[in-house]
Amino acid sequence: MSKVIWKARVYSGKIVKLFLRTVFGFDRWHVYTLTEKQYAKDIIVWCNRRQQRNAFAEIGCGMGDIVRKVHYRVREGYDLDERVLKAARLLSGIRGRRHVRFATFHFPESPLPGQYDVLLMVNWIHHVPPEVLKAKIREYFSDALTAGGCIIIDTVGDPEYKYNHDIGYLTEGLGATVSDLGTYERDRRIWIINR
Predict the structure, then answer these.
(1) DSSP H helical ranges for the chain
(2) Are 137 and 156 in contact (CB under 8 A)?
(3) Which tens digits make up the pLDDT trace of 48-67?
(4) In sequence order, what are the beta bridge partners of 121?
(5) What is the pLDDT of residues 140-180, one digit of tens each?
(6) Is the distance from CB of 86 to CB of 22 less than 8 angstroms?
(7) CA-closest candidate to residue 34, choices 25, 44, 26
(8) Three-state DSSP class for 192?
(9) Which of 53, 76, 127, 166 is deepest in the core (most CB within 10 A)?
(10) Rounded to whole angstroms, what are the CA distances from 173 to 25, 68, 106, 156, 166?
């Protein structure tokens, strides 16, 4: 992709998201576009290459940039902020992707309503204490994944974040196969925890 096309996509996406932020009043970090997040694009490609594509859920979906782009029969996006979910629903309707279900979710209290082939939790877990995150990963791994399903998370290695999680600690004792999708800015690593 040429630099001119890349910039045009970023600017047009930002204009739309800035307008939606003005209307709905959600936090500023939701204004980043999919074009600016290589890790998100890589997650979408990886998820769409899977053979098992029945159900997908994203906790912390924000504007729904990832959940709208994956090709699964059931797609659910969960977030704490109802304002950003209203914007995500509007974007899904405008872009013809109405069959994405968006709902408010309070981590770690809210239960997941189903079982999923992919459960995605990225770009927010660095605010969650390690022991809480480890317990929820264990719960989701045993109760919320289909056979052959996976949880995708990210870890960061940046002192500006509250928690820099250790994937070994988070997956200790799960009996999972853990693979690395890639390393990105701020030493962000995307991990796939396979059941």
Answers:
(1) 3-24, 38-49, 82-94, 130-143, 167-171
(2) no
(3) 999 999 999 999 999 999 99
(4) 153
(5) 999 999 999 999 999 999 999 999 999 999 999 999 999 99
(6) no
(7) 44
(8) strand
(9) 76
(10) 42, 33, 26, 22, 14
Answer yes or no: is pLDDT of 123 > 90: yes
pLDDT of residue 77: 98
Cα-based angle 87, 91, 65 (whole degrees, multiple of 5) = 90
Alpha carbons 99 and 111: distance in angstroms, whole number:
21
Tokens of 43: 């997650």
Residue showing tokens 């694009």: 41
> Rounded distance, CA 194 to CA 149, Å?
6
Residues contacting 159, CB < 8 A, separation 6+: none
Q: Return the structure tokens found at 52.
A: 């098992």
Q: Residue 67's closest CA among 83, 78, 81?
A: 78
Residue by residue, DSSP assigns 23-42 as HH---GGGG--GGG-HHHHH
DSSP letter (8 states) at residue 53: -
> Which residue do the tokens 């940039």 mark?
65
- What pTM did the predictor assign? 0.90
